[in-house]
Specification:
Its cofactor is Zn(2+). The chain is an alpha/beta fold. The chain contains 13 helices and 18 strands. The structure holds zinc ion.
Length: about 500
């Protein structure tokens, strides 16, 4: 019998179409790029299906052909040539691997390029054209994605991470590959049913009501052998595309009525959660009042909408400026992206006192640059912060000090994950009264042990955080909260 063959690859990023930080091939190479056969042993968020193929298919006698795996840090629109080049790279690898019995892809699902509102739909359709109708195509998605008819039509199996934060990306990749193998072996006939919730919302699963909702999805998957997989596509509010919004996705073993009913029921339940899923985000002034009322530090102030993990630049100054206006001192802020200011600091040297303009360069909404006479207190080449078991490169970084305020300037755009972003520069984060970080959710676990209090700050910008005022141009139907009752309006 001919040895069965799977082609597996990964092409992923999360596109904030409102961001000024455009994405090109260098953005992919700077973030993560593994040529065929060069993927490391540890999975990345979106390449986990490739590792699951190694674990589950190779030992069962399959030939696993690994293609390119690449990821760009979330940013703005992808340069058209870059997308087409990466897509065609994967397609030519697939062509060379044919005939194949299965295609397994690690996607993100919120990738938008110049001229392509639905990159993943385009990619999946071209894969389908190559392999024909009989070869199963399976892909893993981040729930912060867009579920388009083109994707559902081209793929046999789509599975998204259930958790946000995305702690289960490897577990869901294994689910995907198990189901994909059963499909290729003719044991199941997956059929995808979807329901459009007509909403967009932030849906953290580390708290209720989403925590219980995810538990229910696991129970349903165990309750009936016809229910193969259930995913919530949260949607991604910073991607202005026609299909933007939350959707339920139910995969059954060829049980269309059951799938449709379940997708609708779960989707209606999800819709009833709108407006009460996120932790309280406070206005800047309310947040600073609350911070100053604390008698002990450190108080962590999380600037949730200037988080590079959502595709913005991460050089915003709104929160810092508000603190400076109040004369707050004993403040440490990090990370703040400003490679030019870092260069100036390195050139001036350690302990130099220099006039420095930093931050606020990428766009008009993130606050004006700050001008200050600063002391260069720390310089670290290729600094790194921790994030769980991994190290996140901050690039060449500088610690500047002025008016009782310490700022960590970085050359890499990176979210604030861990207090080590301060300590690597020589700042003791536990000794500061106020810590300002740029992150929506991922900072939380690592800062809890040192924080006296944690406050989520809604500075209103630069991330397009209010769907009602974001001014979408491509959205193709009414959704909440842009309209109050989207199910009964045109
Ligand atoms: Zn996500």
């Amino acid at each position: 019998m001919r040895q069965k063959t799977v082609y597996t690859a990964s092409l992923a990023t999360e596109t904030n179409t409102f961001s000024p930080v455009f994405t090109d091939l260098q953005s992919f190479r700077d973030s993560f790029y593994a040529a065929p056969g060069e993927h490391p042993e540890t999975p990345t968020l979106c390449s986990a299906p490739m590792i699951a193929c190694r674990e589950l298919l190779a030992p069962a006698g399959w030939r696993v052909v690994e293609g390119t795996a690449t990821w760009a840090e979330p940013g703005g629109l992808i340069n058209r040539d870059t997308y087409e080049h990466l897509r065609d790279t994967l397609l030519s690898e697939l062509t060379a691997a044919m005939p194949v019995d299965l295609v397994v892809l690690g996607l993100h699902g919120a990738m938008v390029a110049q001229g392509y509102d639905d990159c993943e739909g385009d990619l999946l359709q071209r894969v389908r054209e190559l392999v024909g109708s009989d070869v199963p195509i399976a892909a893993e998605l981040d729930p912060h994605s867009h579920l388009t008819p083109a994707r559902v039509g081209a793929a046999d199996l789509l599975v998204a991470f259930k958790e946000f934060p995305h702690t289960d990306f490897m577990a869901r990749a294994r689910d995907l590959v198990r189901l994909a193998r059963a499909t290729a072996d003719g044991e199941i006939r997956p059929l995808m049913s979807t329901h459009d919730c007509r909403m967009i919302e932030v849906l953290p699963t580390s708290r209720e009501p989403m925590q219980g909702f995810v538990r229910q999805l696991h129970e349903l998957e165990q309750s009936d052998p016809r229910i193969l997989s259930i995913s919530v596509i949260h949607g991604f509010m910073a991607g202005d595309v026609p299909e933007l919004g939350t959707r339920m996705l139910v995969v059954t073993d060829n049980a269309p009525e059951l799938g449709a009913q379940l997708a609708r029921e779960l989707g209606e339940q999800l819709y009833s959660f709108r407006g009460r899923t996120r932790p309280p985000f406070l206005d800047i002034e309310v947040a600073l009042d609350q911070a100053q009322a604390c008698t002990r530090g450190p108080v962590v102030l999380a600037d949730v909408w200037d988080n590079p993990g959502g595709g913005v630049a991460g050089d915003g100054t709104l929160l810092l400026r508000a603190g400076l206006e109040r004369g707050m001192s004993d403040v440490a802020l990090g990370t703040l992206w400003d490679p030019i200011a870092v260069k100036f600091c390195f050139a001036a040297g350690l302990n130099a006192r220099i006039p420095l303009r930093f931050g606020g360069k990428s766009c008009a909404t993130a606050g004006a640059p700050v001008d200050a006479e600063v002391e260069v207190r720390g310089l670290v080449r290729q600094a790194e912060q921790r994030f769980g078991d991994s190290q996140v490169p901050m690039g060449d970084s500088a610690w500047i000090h002025f008016a009782g305020v310490d700022v960590v300037l970085t050359s890499n755009r990176c979210q604030s994950f861990d207090p080590s972003l301060f300590s690597v520069m020589g700042i003791d984060p536990g000794a500061r009264r106020y810590l300002m970080v740029k992150s929506t959710n991922h900072f939380h676990d690592a800062f809890v042990p040192i924080a006296h209090e944690i406050i989520y700050v809604d500075a209103g910008a630069p991330y397009p955080s209010n769907p009602a005022t974001n001014g979408y141009r491509k959205l193709n139907r009414p959704i909440w909260p842009i309209v109050e009752d989207p199910h009964n309006s045109q």
